[in-house]
Design brief:
With about 725 residues, the protein is α/β, with parallel strands linked by helices. The protein is built from 24 helices and 22 strands.
Length: about 725
C-alpha cells in the first residue's frame, strides 16, 4: 500500500491525540452529544465547555461535520453540546444549553446556506435535505453571520469560532453571486474571533486546549488552518507585495515605513538638561521588509517569517482584474508544505490567513472515523426522515481531498489537494459496524468513496517534489509523472469488502475520475465486474477543448478510452451497463457554438440527458473568479489579458441548458431562433444530421426517436443526488 511521503521534522505537526486530555474526560463518552439541559443533567454536566451551533439537523455520523468536530473534542476530554437549527429570531434558542466555558463553535452546516437555499437560477429551493422531512426555511441566509451575531447578543464575553464550508470559502474577500458584489471576509462580517478553514481537526484541538490552559483567543494568531484579524504585520516579517498586477519595467525598492533613520546625531530630552538622553520606553523595532512580487524569487527570505500581501478588499471590490489576481495567488498558496500566510487589508484591519493544516496521517484518520458515533439522527427527531442522512447512511467515506483542481468545484479549496486516506482495516471495520448497527441495512453498501471514487491512497512519488509543488492540479493538463496512479489499494479494498459476511453488494456512487482509472485496467475490470449496478456516473462536463481547459478537465480522448474499457469489461461480465455522463451548461468561457457541438455529440452518442447542471458561482472557486472578472486566473493576470465570454444573463444560461436537453420540446423554439442567428439553420429539420425538428405550426414539431437507446440518464434520477466534484 502506498504511504504518504515522509516529512522533515519542521514540517510535521504533533500527533492529533498527543495532548493530555482535559479533566472533564472523567464524564466519559456521551451516547449523543446533548441538545438540551435535561440531557446534560443525565450526563452529570453542570455546563458545556464548547457549544456547537449548526444549520443542519444533528446526525451522529462521520459524514456530518458537527458530529465529527463534537466527537473530536469529546475525545480530548471536553464536554460538547449542540444547538441544531436554532430559531434565529428567538434569543432563548441560543441560551438553552447555558453559557459555554470556552467558546461557541458556529457552522452553517455541511452546505453553504446560500447554495442550500437557492438554485443556480436564484430560485428558492422547495426543500432542505439536511432538515427533518426536508422542510425548507429552517436556517437563515448567511447562517454563519446570523448565528454569530445572535451568540454575541446573548453572551457578549464568550469567544466565537466559525468554521465549516461556508466560513472556509469566505475567509478572504469573495465574490457573492446572490448579491452580485464582492463581500468582505466573513470573519469581519460575523464579528467572530477566529475562523477555522478546511478539515479543522488539528486547529480545533490546538485552539481548545490553548483556551483551556487560560490563553486568550486574541493571542492565538499562528495556528495553521485559521484566519484571524490583526492590526498590522508583526515586526521582523517580510511582506511579498502582490497587491497589484502590472509592475513597471524598473522596480525600485519600496520605502519601508518602519525603517529607523540614522539617529547618530539626533537627541531627545524631556527636560532640556541632558541632550544625550533618549526619552523612550519603547523596545527596539525590527523592520518589516517589503519585497515586490516580481523580485521575491531573487530575495533570500525566511519562509517561516514571510507573508504575501493580497490586494485589499476595497481594491478587489472595485477592480475585477485584481480580484482574479488575488484568487490566483490564493490557489497557488494551497500546499501546506510551502504555503505562506496571506494578508488582506479590510479598511484599517488586516485579515491574516495562516497556511493550511498539515494533512492527517492514516492512523489519525482512522481515529477520527472510529469515534463512537451512533450513526443515526438524534432521538429528538423521532421518526422524521432526514434526506441527506438517508442518502449516506449505508455509505463509507474512505478518503478526503482532491487533486483534480476542477475550477468550478469547491472541494479542493476546502479539503485540499493532498489525499488523506484511511486504512483498509478501518474501512472494513466501519462496514461491519453499519451491518450490525444501522437500522434497515439489507446487505448493500451504497458507496465506498469520497470527493472522488478512485483517489484512495494516491500520492506524490517524491517527498521533495510534494513539498515544493505549486501546481493547481496533479492531472491537468496531463497526469503528472510524479503521481502514483496504481489503484491496487482500492482494488484490494473492494475485494476485501465483498468478503465481509452479511454484505451482499458494494456499490460505488462517488464520481469517478476516469482519466486516472484508465491508467489501471485491472481496477476498471474490478469496478465494472462487481461494483456497477447497471449505471456508472462520470463527469466529462463538456466536450469542447477550450471549455474543458477552463474547467481543468481532461479531453474527450480519455472518456473514449474509458468507455471502450467499460463496454469491454461489461460484456465480459455478461452485464448490460451504461455510463451516466454529467455536463455543465453556462460555464465561464462557454459560447453558443460550444453548447451546439456538445448537443451534436450527445445526439451522435444517442444520449438524452435529463439530469444536467447550470454553472453555479460558488465562493472562492477559480471559475467564479472567471465569472466575475471575465478573465482566466489560470493564466498570469494583466489588464491587457483577453477577456472571456461569460454566459451571465438568465436567458443565455437557459439557452445553454436547452442545448444540453436538445430532445426537450420546451427548448426548441429558443434553439431554432439561436441556430438561425448563428447561421446553423441546417441543424433544424428531420434529416439524420438535424439536431431539432422544424416547427410544425404549433411551435414544437416532432423529434425523430428511432435509433435512440433507452433514456439512461433519466433512469439515473433514481440513483440519488450527485456528489459535487
Amino acid at each position: 500500500m502506498n504511504q504518504p511521503p515522509k516529512l522533515n521534522e519542521s514540517q510535521k505537526e504533533k500527533h492529533l491525540f498527543s495532548n493530555y486530555p482535559y479533566w472533564a474526560e472523567c464524564f466519559g463518552t456521551a451516547p449523543f452529544l446533548p441538545m438540551s439541559r435535561d440531557e446534560m443533567d443525565l450526563l452529570g454536566w453542570d455546563s458545556c465547555d464548547v457549544i456547537l451551533v449548526t444549520g443542519d439537523a444533528y446526525v451522529d455520523h462521520p459524514s456530518f461535520g458537527m458530529a465529527v468536530m463534537g466527537r473530536m473534542l469529546e475525545s480530548q476530554g471536553f464536554r460538547v453540546g449542540i444547538i441544531a437549527q436554532p430559531d434565529w429570531n428567538n434569543p432563548e434558542d441560543f441560551m438553552k444549553l447555558g453559557k459555554p466555558n470556552f467558546y461557541f463553535g458556529i457552522t452553517a452546516g455541511n452546505m453553504d446556506s446560500m447554495i442550500n437555499r437557492y438554485t443556480a437560477d436564484l430560485k428558492v429551493r422547495s426543500d432542505d435535505a439536511y432538515t427533518p422531512h426536508g422542510e425548507p426555511g429552517k436556517r437563515p441566509d448567511r447562517a454563519v453571520i446570523v448565528y454569530s451575531q445572535k451568540c454575541r447578543e446573548v453572551y457578549k464575553d464568550v469567544p466565537i469560532v466559525i468554521g465549516g464550508i461556508e466560513a472556509s470559502l469566505r475567509r478572504i474577500a469573495q465574490y457573492d453571486y446572490w448579491s452580485d458584489q464582492v463581500r468582505r471576509s466573513v470573519l469581519i462580517d460575523s464579528g467572530a474571533d477566529i475562523l477555522l478553514y478546511g478539515n479543522a481537526e488539528r486547529a480545533i484541538v490546538d485552539l481548545t486546549h490553548a483556551l483551556a490552559q487560560g490563553r486568550n483567543v486574541e493571542d492565538l494568531t499562528d495556528l495553521r488552518g485559521t484566519a484571524v484579524i490583526r492590526d498590522s504585520t508583526p515586526a521582523g516579517w517580510t511582506e511579498i507585495d502582490s497587491s497589484r498586477i502590472d509592475w513597471p519595467g524598473k522596480i525600485d525598492d519600496i520605502p519601508n515605513p518602519y525603517e529607523m533613520k540614522d539617529t547618530e546625531n539626533m537627541t531627545c530630552s524631556t527636560n532640556g538638561d541632558d541632550d544625550n538622553e533618549v526619552a523612550s520606553d519603547e523596545p527596539d523595532v525590527m523592520a518589516i521588509k517589503i519585497v515586490p512580487m516580481p523580485l521575491h524569487r531573487k530575495a533570500d527570505l525566511d519562509p517561516n517569517k514571510t507573508a504575501i500581501r493580497l490586494p485589499s478588499f476595497e481594491k478587489v471590490r472595485n477592480d475585477s482584474a485584481l480580484y482574479a489576481h488575488a484568487s490566483r495567488v490564493l490557489h497557488q498558496e494551497a500546499n501546506p508544505y510551502n504555503a505562506r500566510p496571506l494578508i488582506q487589508k479590510h479598511g484599517t484591519r488586516e485579515i491574516w490567513v495562516n497556511p493550511p493544516p498539515i494533512p492527517l496521517e492514516t492512523d489519525e484518520m482512522d481515529s477520527v472515523f472510529g469515534f463512537q458515533y451512533q450513526r443515526i439522527p438524534h432521538p429528538s427527531y423521532g421518526d422524521a426522515t432526514i434526506p441527506a442522512y438517508d442518502m449516506i447512511r449505508f455509505s463509507v467515506n474512505i478518503m478526503r481531498g482532491c487533486f483534480g483542481g476542477c475550477t468550478f468545484c469547491s472541494i479542493t479549496e476546502h479539503e485540499g489537494r493532498i489525499i488523506q486516506s484511511r486504512s483498509q482495516e478501518s474501512v472494513l471495520g466501519e462496514i461491519e459496524e453499519i451491518r450490525d448497527k444501522v437500522p434497515g441495512f439489507t446487505g448493500t453498501i451504497s458507496d465506498l468513496g469520497g470527493p472522488t471514487a478512485n483517489m484512495y491512497h494516491l500520492t506524490c512519488k517524491s517527498e521533495t517534489i510534494l513539498k515544493n509543488c505549486r501546481r493547481l492540479s496533479c492531472v491537468h493538463p496531463g497526469i503528472c509523472k510524479n503521481l502514483e496512479t496504481s489503484h491496487k489499494p482500492t482494488t484490494e479494498l473492494y475485494r476485501a469488502a465483498r468478503k465481509i459476511p452479511g454484505v451482499k453488494r458494494i456499490a460505488i456512487a462517488s464520481g469517478l475520475r476516469y482519466d486516472l482509472a484508465i491508467k489501471d485496467p485491472e481496477y476498471v475490470r474490478e469496478l465494472v465486474t462487481h461494483h456497477v449496478g447497471g449505471l456508472l456516473k462520470i463527469a466529462p462536463e463538456h466536450t469542447e477543448e477550450n471549455v474543458l481547459n477552463k474547467m481543468m478537465k481532461p479531453g474527450m480522448g480519455a472518456y473514449d478510452t474509458f468507455k471502450k474499457m467499460f463496454d469491454k469489461y461489461s460484456k465480459e461480465a455478461g452485464k448490460e451497463q451504461y455510463l451516466v455522463p454529467y455536463f455543465i451548461a453556462a460555464h465561464p468561457g462557454t459560447e453558443t457554438k460550444d453548447m451546439m457541438n456538445l448537443a451534436l455529440w450527445l445526439k451522435k452518442q444517442k444520449m438524452r440527458v435529463d439530469q444536467v447542471q447550470t454553472f453555479y458561482p460558488s465562493p472562492m472557486s477559480l471559475a467564479t473568479a472567471m465569472y466575475h472578472s471575465e478573465r482566466n486566473p489560470l493564466q498570469r493576470m494583466s489588464y491587457k489579458s483577453k477577456k472571456i465570454h461569460i454566459p451571465r444573463k438568465l436567458e443565455e444560461r437557459r439557452l445553454q441548458k436547452a442545448f444540453l436537453r436538445y430532445h426537450d420540446p420546451k427548448g426548441w423554439p429558443a434553439l431554432r431562433e439561436e441556430l438561425k442567428r448563428i447561421g446553423r439553420a441546417d441543424l433544424i429539420g428531420s434529416g439524420p444530421n438535424a439536431l431539432i425538428p422544424a416547427d410544425d405550426g404549433t411551435g414544437n414539431g416532432r423529434h425523430a426517436r428511432p435509433g435512440f437507446k433507452s433514456n439512461v440518464a433519466r433512469t439515473a434520477k433514481n440513483s440519488g443526488p450527485r456528489k459535487r466534484r
